[in-house]
Write a structure and sequence with these properties.
alpha+beta; 4 helices; single chain; five-stranded mixed β-sheet; 294 residues
Amino acid sequence: MSEATLGPLICRYHLTPRLGVYTVVAVLFATLCDGCLRQGSRQPRVAFDYTQVDVGQVVEGQRVEREFAFKNTGEELLVVERLVADCACTAALPSAGHLRPGESAAIRVAVDTRDMAGAIQKRVTVECNDPEQRTVTLVVAAMVRPELLLSSRTVDFGQLNEGMEATRRVRVMIAHGADVRLLGVRSTNESISAWLEPTGNPAVVNVTARVLPRRRGQGSALFGNLVLTTTSLFTPELRVPIRGTLTEAVRPNNRRALVTGYWDPGRLRYCPPDRPPWRRTHTMPPQTVARLAL
């Protein structure tokens, strides 16, 4: 900056040329810093009315929906970048993704309570461009009351040898005050049959599942579901997983083992030889049978 440019300022403030240059530079620097500070203070700000809500008691299978209102209290555009739910049973959707200063919006959170019981808390994380609050966690709490109480949530057949039959039962009890009935049961696995067995109590029903003999080549795992059909408005179908493993029977070719019997590790029991009853040996311990089978 030349002295011709600084002349009016120097004359106005009665400054010497050297002192006038320093003063003008200081003024310009202060003005620039003030502008930077003002620009830095112009940021978006997210403000929620509340971040946690308790809906109280709900019936299992009921869909719970709540809205969380928020506002942009800053001076720049607020952007909702992403919504992350903590499980697949929870969904969230904002009414607007970009908010100008002073605008308001809401985030709708929906929770599917199927296969839930007791106290639950589902969370949704909101990610935005607020530099002071990059994430906000929304919480939906509830107490889920099941209409049907099961003695077991799975049907476990354990380890079975091929050709064996096995039966498992699950007791189903109708919760107090629930207006619901069992209509039937079916199995998604063709090797497993299922039916309902009434009891003396109209609020209690036994569900029986039986594994039919399976041949070699039908697979080594039992899986599927027992599907209970009900009159419930919230849970018209209730699925109970089926688990189990199928193993081949151990039949050694050693002649002495065929005469004295053998120990089957799959069934964890002593198997007598394939001889007439009057020539079978049932009193030999498993250790002796295993030693003779070598």
